[in-house]
Specification:
This protein is 44% helix and 16% strand. It is α/β, with parallel strands linked by helices. The strands form 2 sheets. A 7-stranded parallel β-sheet has the order 3-2-1-4-5-6-9, with helices on both faces. Strands 7-8-10 form a 3-stranded mixed β-sheet. α8 crosses α12.
Length: 293
Amino acid sequence: MILVVGATGMVGGEICRLLADSNRPFRALIRSSSAPAKIEALERLGAGIVRGDLRDPASLDAACRGATHVISTASAMPFAYVPGENTPDATDRDGSLNLVDAARRAGARRFVYVSFPPMTIPFPLQDAKRAVETRLRDSGMTYTVLRPTYFTEIWLSPAVGFDHTNQAATIYGTGENAISWISYLDVARFGVESLDHPAAANATLWLGGPDGIAPNDVVRLFERIAGRPFTVTHVAPEALQDRFAAAADPMQQSFTALMLGYAGATAIDMTDTLSTFPLKLRSVEEYARAVTA
């Protein structure tokens, strides 16, 4: 039995769909605040529903009971953040540490954890992820840490300033550095593959898309496909550093730090990973064509 934590989220929901397609039994941890429509969708996939919360250790013991594998994509960032309640400290750090401990107590054989690549400055979300990675490596369970870079569907969307519908893009930094944008759909595929793949055992996998593409080139790609010019605004790293220093809460600090990471990101070479996990990754061009159709 596979326990999916974060099942109502973007990556977690796709993981559940993939598990259902492969007829693998799984259960989904659902909070009391989860949208009924998302719970119904999981039930239609055949998920067993268990109620609980990362911040309630007793509920995690019940959820993990009988689970041979645990896969967690849960995070307060970017869309579930609630000040003072669902935060990087409470959910991404303390809650995920609770989950690792509960899985270990339940005798789970493998734990797959979705994190992200290290960045140069400390900030709440990064501090939480690194703490959980360390606990997982010390747990005695077989583990896989997935470190996907910037999600195509988030960072090339209006949510963070890439408004392809209105041909306007905010770019962090010069926009000349190549970024290995990765689809959340492919992150989910790596997550499911990692549940049993020998090469994923006690491994940390850095994940990117098929090619590194500079943000300025992404804009040009969208312009070519849509046949319309974009209005582009650049935010200098110095302005982001000032914004980070002035950030008042963990969400602002973390999101600004991720923008700084974007401004200095480098491409991830996926050659060796794809020789072991021969998946066809979705390109930025495929995404651009889909959202501009």
